[in-house]
Every structure is written in C-alpha cells, then in structure tokens.
Amino acid sequence: MSTDVETPLREKTFALTELSEEEELFRSMVREFAEKEIGPLVRKMDQDAKIDPALLPKFFELGLMGIEIPESYEGSGASFFMAALAVEEVSRVDASLGVCLDVQNTLVNNAVMRFGNDEQKKRYLPRLAQNTVGAYALSEPESGSDAFALTCRATEDEDGDAYRLTGTKLWITNGAEAGLFIVFATVDPGAGYKGITAFLVERDFEGFTVGKKEDKLGIRASSTTELVLENCIVPKSNVLGEIGKGYKVAIETLNEGRIGIGAQMIGIATGALEHAMAYTKERKAFGKPIAEFQGVQFQHAQCATELEAARLLVYNASRLRDAKKPYLVQAAMAKLFSSQVAERVTSQAIEHYGGYGYSKDFPVEKFWRDAKIGTIYEGTSNMQLQTIAKYLLKDG
User: Fold this and answer.
1) Domains identified in the chain and CATH numbers
2) Which residues does 352 contact at the CB level (< 8 Å), separation at least 6?
3) Helix %, strand %, coil % for the chain, to 5?
C-alpha cells in the first residue's frame, strides 16, 4: 500500500510532547531565565527559607505571573499548557519558585478570570499580571482533605455593604508575599458545602493578618503561612462568584491546579535525573565512570521511562484543558503518577551520588526533599485515587 499521499488522519496526528514554535521559544526563555537568574540563588534561598526579593519582580517583567491573563488586562494572553511548561522549567531548577508560579497562574488567576465579574477583572487581573502575588486560602487547621468542613465564618455586616470574616487558614502557599488572597468561608454552617463562598481579600483589609510561617522539609523558600481573620471586613463587591457557590470555585480551580503540581513534579524529577546522569559520567569506580556499568545504565533508563510517562500524562491533561474537553480524571492521574515518579527518581539520584548525595553540598538531596510534598498538597494521592475510582466505577 502506498504511503506517498497524506491522509486526513495523518494530517491530524500530533505528538503530545511536540511543541509549536511559540511554545518552544517560550520554554527556552523560561529555561534560560531559571538557570541564570534562579540557579545561583537556590541553595541560599533553601537555607534562608525565603525567596530572594529580587526574583519576583523579574517574574512579572517576563510575564510569567499572568501567563493566561488576556492582553487586554495586561497579561501574556498565552495558554494553560504554556503555564504548565513554565512551572516545569522553573521547578527543574527550584521547586519553591515553581509552586509560587503555579499557584498564581493555575489557581488565583484562573479563579478571577472564570468567576470574577467585569469590575473585579478590571481591578485585579492587571495587578496579578504586573505586580501582585496571589494566594489561595482553602485549608484550615481541622480541614485538609475534607476541605468543605471548613469553619471560617462570613457574617453580613450591619450596614449590609460588607461581610465580616472570622477564622484561621493554614498551609497557605505564597502567604508571605501575596497581596491578594482568595479566601473561602461559609455564610451558613448549617448548609454544609452549599454555604461556602469565595472572597477576594486584600492584604491590608482591616482584621486580616498573616500569621506563623511554617518551617518545612522541602520547598523551603516557598512561604507556607497561617492566615488569621478577626472580623475582617470584606466589601460585598469582593464576593467571587455567587454566594454559597464557593465550592464550585474551589473544585474547578483545584482540578487545574493539580495539573500544575504534576508539572512541578516532572520538573523536579528532570532536574534530579540530569544531575545524576552528569555525575555518574564523572564518578569513577573500579577504574571507570560508573555510568559505564550496566546496572547504573538500567537505573537511568528506568527513571527516564517513568519520567516520560509522567510527562505525557501532564501534557495530555494540559492540552485537554486548553481544548475545553473533560480533563478531571486525567488531571488526577497526572498528579498521582508524577508525584510518585518524582519520589522514585529523586531517591535514585541520591543513590547515584553515593554518600555525597546525602550531603547538602550536592543538589540532589534538595530535589528529594522538594518532591515529597507532591503526594500531599492540592489533594493527597488517596484523594486522586478516589477521583479516578469514582469515574471508573460510575454507572452508565
């Protein structure tokens, strides 16, 4: 059978990891920035548990904090897939900056774009694109995986123009740097999840305080803080979406956020594997580089294969989201598997370094510490399994 004539089917063939010219240029730009600007600061930021203050303005200058925000709101007007690419490339160098970028783009910006009214978009999207870090405040001390058991309360103010929010939020990424917070509170505890409402809370609102900063195992430069709301006054004009429909805001944005975490995990695994392969070409045992031993070669091959599979899952979920096709299960699979792969690959990288891998003088122990959070935040691995199982076992 002749294969000289292109068929319609072949014309539509597209590899998930094949990048358009625009996507390739974008990835190269982010990679160069990460290696040159972030790379030299990684160890000190990890030690200090703080993002270097000079970096975030550069993120804004490059348009990385508003990747999907339309140009009409001073954003980059790019795709969700490109946001995932940026998270991957930054996390390949430092996962702390990767998650800062992820929360901004996949959670905060998307929530405002999707659920904000025209006035809210005009007020906040240009700031998020140009100079304001965002944070997403759902979790509470007694409300983690069971996020909708939250107790933060919103009561209508006496004058009827505002709500007063009271409660404590915990594990809030970007808490130290953020100027805008999406805070979830209930207007009616008796209504269960149907009482939950999302609010746009600015850092200087009366009654709002950023509390304790957590001292973490990994992603140490990324701030993870407590938020304290004591009769915090929030204008009614800052209700995001509808009263009692905050659960919809949370669910839809977290589904996107899980793809972003998947991108962070494949970035971490890529960085660790690249360091390990380079080191095994230099480290000698029994008179030759250990990369020449078949056992080491097979370990590299196994890591690379699992990483490629994880990347395919993440890219597929990203492209489905851009195509406005269902991606809930694919997002759960991408986060589940990529976080597992990141743990395995970073652990193997430490072993390739031998005793040096356990030392902070070498980079791979940090990749391993950073990888652990992937099975925990934005939905634990068990929550992803539950999502996948429900889909598989549903009737019809």
Assistant:
1) 14-133 (1.10.540.10), 135-244 (2.40.110.10), 248-393 (1.20.140.10)
2) 276, 279, 280, 283, 290, 296, 299, 364
3) 55, 15, 30
Q: Residues 246-282: pLDDT tens digits?
A: 999 999 999 999 999 999 999 999 999 999 999 999 9
**CA dihedral of residues 390, 391, 393, 396 (deg, nearest 10):** 130
Closest CA to 297 of 289, 306, 308: 289
Q: What is the pLDDT of residues 88-119, one digit of tens each?
A: 999 999 999 999 999 999 999 999 999 999 99
**Read out DSSP for 213-280?**
EP--SSSTTS-EEEEEEEEEEEEGGGEES-TT-HHHHHHHHHHHHHHHHHHHHHHHHHHHHHHHHHHH
Give, in order, the Cα–Cα distances in Å from 233 to each of 253, 272, 297: 25, 46, 60
Q: How many CA atoms lie within 13 A of 87 on its CB side?
A: 32
Q: Are strands 162-173 and 180-186 parallel, antiparallel or unpaired?
A: unpaired
Q: Is 308 a catalytic residue?
A: no
What's the whole-model pTM score?
A: 0.95
Q: DSSP letters of 97-118?
A: HHHHHHIIIIIIIHHHHHH--H
Residues 203-212: contacts with CB within 8 Å, 24+ apart? 203/178, 203/179, 205/232, 205/233, 205/234, 206/232, 206/233, 207/164, 207/165, 207/231, 207/232, 207/233, 208/181, 208/232, 210/175, 210/176, 211/168
